[in-house]
Amino acid sequence: MGPVKVGILGLGTVGGGTVNVLSRNAEEIFRRAGRGIQVTHAAARDITRARSCDTSEIQLTDNPQDIVANPEVDIIVELIGGEELARDLVMKAIANGKHVVTANKALIAKYGNEIFNAAQKKGVMVAFEAAVAGGIPIIKAIREGLSGNRIEWLAGIINGTGNFILTEMRDKGRDFSDVLQEAQRLGYAEADPTFDVEGIDAAHKLTILASIAFGIPLQFEKAYTEGITKITQEDVSYAEQLGYRIKHLGIAKRTDSGIELRVHPTLIPERRLIANVDGVMNAVLVKGDAVGPTLYYGAGAGSEATASAVVADIIDVVRTLTADPENRVPHLAFQPDSINDTPILPVEDIQTAYYLRMSADDKPGVLAEVTQILGDAEISIEALIQKEPQNAETQVQIIMLTHKVYEKQMISAIEKIEALDSIKDQLTRIRVETLDKE
Question: What is the mean pLDDT of the chain?
Fold first, then answer.
């Protein structure tokens, strides 16, 4: 039986890494897959540019449509990114009866329902391990390794850029804007870092994780998303004093009322393993009813780290080329007719604890006014720090940790606190999660 022929769309960082891994580990991959795997075609914008991989035996083209339509190609690997062109190419590949491997989280999060439905009808596979957390095999872990569990919740550091920024702010006392500029110089952040620092990238990935964890349709538009641009160095410092660290988390949680789907800065206890995931590394914590909390850690990006996941998907496809489509692992972990419509909760209906920081006049009775408002809203305080004013300052910093409360209660209380004459500027609010066995 001849080798399986692969066409790669996009020969950038991950595309080059994929060619290198397939070539370097060809013998080991053959032993695992049972057949040879050969990259025969690849598309790139500029086919004359020097590459990080050997393309001497690969037919290059600047038109990806040619590869999608080529009857000799068995598997299409989509690594061009973006949405509309990638969607068009993937849907055409499926229509042509080709299996697809992609690292495109936006594509899957926004159009995955349509893509998987088309793939099921044509009896082909769409594999997307590399779309979430780079080289960490988190999709396979949830979809297969934890398939005997009822997943209760998951929380992940799934964007390396944001994690690098918060780590530098904590370790070196630097400001957000300063660290962001360094992240851009180092290549961790794009010239336009919006997707990373505003949580959109993480929301794409969280949407995918929630779908395979809970058996719900992909619903990116319902994910609550909040970035880290307003996190200050003093918030990072106060969190440390309280025994917490700030991480930009994606959280999906099953509740009696529905599914929480949210990305935001979060205080987590510093003793938690995930609180000690630093720099550009990723980690996902998954709580199953049988196994308890499990942690998956590794490189969330990079040429060969992401290629590791891409190649694993290619091997999975090759293994199942002759299998009955009805017996394959479902795209979203659950059988297609078992995907349910459990509602995604609006953020106002989630329950969490809170970190609050406010600047108040340094005079008697201010703290009593604030605590009265919180008490009237049935919000109890777990910890409180009141900093002494420095030199001629007339305001003091008040920092509080609250117990769990509905977000709508907290929103109402904050509006009343900010309306006090003694409170200056807007109050800073960051959600708190303990991430234990709850």
Answer: 95
Three-state SS at 379: coil
| Sequence-ordered strand ranges (E) for 134-278 | 151-157, 224-225, 244-254, 259-269
Residue 391, pLDDT score: 63
Q: How far apart are CA 414 and CA 405, in angstroms?
A: 13
260/353 same-domain check: no
Report the distance separating Cα 239 and Cα 237, nearest Å: 5
Token pair of 29, please?
């991959």
Residue 344 lies in a domain: no
* 3-state SS class at 180: helix
The answer to whether the CB of 425 falls within 8 A of the CB of 359 is yes
The structure's pTM equals 0.95
Q: Are residues 130 and 144 in the same domain?
A: no
Task: Tell me the per-residue pLDDT of 1-46, one tens digit each, with 9 for 90 and over.
Answer: 789 999 999 999 999 999 999 999 999 999 999 999 999 999 999 9
Domain span at residue 321 reads: 4-135+303-338
Distance CA 186, CA 182 (A): 6
Q: What angle do CA 83, 89, 92 make, to 5 degrees?
A: 135
From the candidates 98, 105, 140, 205, which is the catalytic residue?
205
Which residues have C-beta within 8 Å of that of residue 41, sequence separation ≥ 6? 5, 6, 7, 8, 58, 59, 60, 61, 66, 67, 70, 72, 73
- Write the pLDDT tens digit of every residue in 225-283: 999 999 999 999 999 999 999 999 999 999 999 999 999 999 999 999 999 999 999 99
Is 205 a catalytic site residue? yes
Sign of CA dihedral 270, 276, 281, 286: negative
Percent of the chain with pLDDT over 70: 98
**Tokens (6 digits) for 74:** 């068995």
Closest CA to 129 of 208, 202, 74: 208
